[in-house]
Design brief:
By secondary structure, the chain is mainly alpha-helical. Helix content is about 50%, strand content about 5%. The strands form 2 sheets. A 3-stranded antiparallel beta sheet has the order 1-2-3. Strands 4-5-6 form a 3-stranded antiparallel beta sheet. Helix 7 runs parallel beside helix 8, helix 9 packs across helix 18 and helix 12 crosses helix 17. The structure holds s-citryldethia Coenzyme A. The site of s-citryldethia Coenzyme A (SDX) has 21 residues, from helix 17.
Length: about 425
Amino acid sequence: MPKAAELHLGDKTIELPIVEGSEGERAIDITRLRSETGYITLDPGYANTGSCRSDITFIDGEKGILRYRGIPIEQLADRSSFLEVAFLLMYGSLPSGDQLSYFKNSIRQHTMLHEDFKKLYGALPKDAHPMAACSAAVGALATFYPDSLDPRDPREVEISVHRLIAKLPTMAAYAYKHSIGQPFMFPNNRYDYVGNFLWMMFGNPCEDYEVDETVRKALDLLFILHADHEQNCSTSTARLVGSSMVNLFSVISASINSLWGPLHGGANQQVIEMLAAIRDEGMTGREFVERAKTKDDTSRLMGFGHRVYKNFDPRAKIIKKACFDVLNKLGVHSKLLEIAVELEEIALSDDYFIERKLYPNVDFYSGVIYNAIGTPSNMFTALFAIGRLPGWIAQWIELHTDPDFKIGRPRQVYTGPNETEYTPLAER
Ligand code: SDX
């Protein structure tokens, strides 16, 4: 492998160092490009641009590989738990028994929200989207905890991390309860992390609530599968916003907003609405796939395609299997699942999708499970956020320990008007 890349610009030639990652990925280090040539690079959507070195998550889009801290997602899905995976991502290794107990107990002690949060939720319209409610509530944490906002103070960072992991499920559940006019359910320490979320979502003060183990395990699995995904849009948001040295609560609020977008985490809500529309309009899968291929039609096959995976998204494979397991155990027949399977079969044998290497992504089947356990579709992306939270935090922690840390400030190629004179109002 060459040690450097040669760039010939007119009569000038410069050498740019080659950087190689631990899995053989190679990059051209352009740190000196502008100072030595006056040129910048241009890469809309950063499809060819690495923003950082990272030890956290490895994806091989061609081989459909996903690993958290080197551990294959399939093994974590089979053998781990969401809080154990959160610890792995944020602190770099699987916890010992004592470390996991300490982490779980600390999270358990911080699941309640300050009572004044009820006024914040009360000010929101009943149909407020849960992602708007959660980003507002998370941002508000910076006003409740002014004593723990320093991104470089280890003690303040640890308490903020634990508060966020602990409180986001409560915030999401409160958004749901607010939307259906039911009382907020306080967290209950007799449940584990996922069971507590189910209690706060589906429990009510008038009757006992038993957590369905099938549902709890399915949600724990989905949170694991969503936990991190290298430099996706909302994680890059965390890094860019975090690079200004703002507090972690403000960073996560920004990431929640980025995830909400329909091209990103919001796709899981779009998928289930797409499947329901096909069902309700009596469309065939083939009719919809043909629509998804036409440029003028606004119907994309949501849940299909990925910037990195040009082969199967390994998460989609695991979730598809979990769909059948969970629905069978719950005795639920899902027409939406039937439609999803039909769409996948049609798309995977259609030249349009094959040529563009479009496969099901993490969002294609996840909503079928969320729907089967009674979650309203506008809550799906909030569940994605709960899962992705440790990944955002892990990447933010890595940003602040990066020896190359600097504020993110991309350049541009200016294409506007050249110098012009100001025209006085009387002459316009
Ligand atoms: C997530 O980055 C991550 O890791 C994200 C994520 C994570 O864990 O953080 O994996 C989570 O966000 C998954 C993606 C969820 N979004 C969707 O499912 C929305 C539908 N998919 C697309 O909009 C699209 O595939 C993206 C946004 C996911 C990727 O977009 P790219 O890489 O910019 O690719 P593109 O939009 O340029 O598409 C390439 C071609 C285009 O056709 P041409 O212009 O070349 O003719 O494929 C077509 C697109 O029109 N295309 C689709 C399509 N996705 C891409 N056509 C129909 N249906 C689709 N779903």
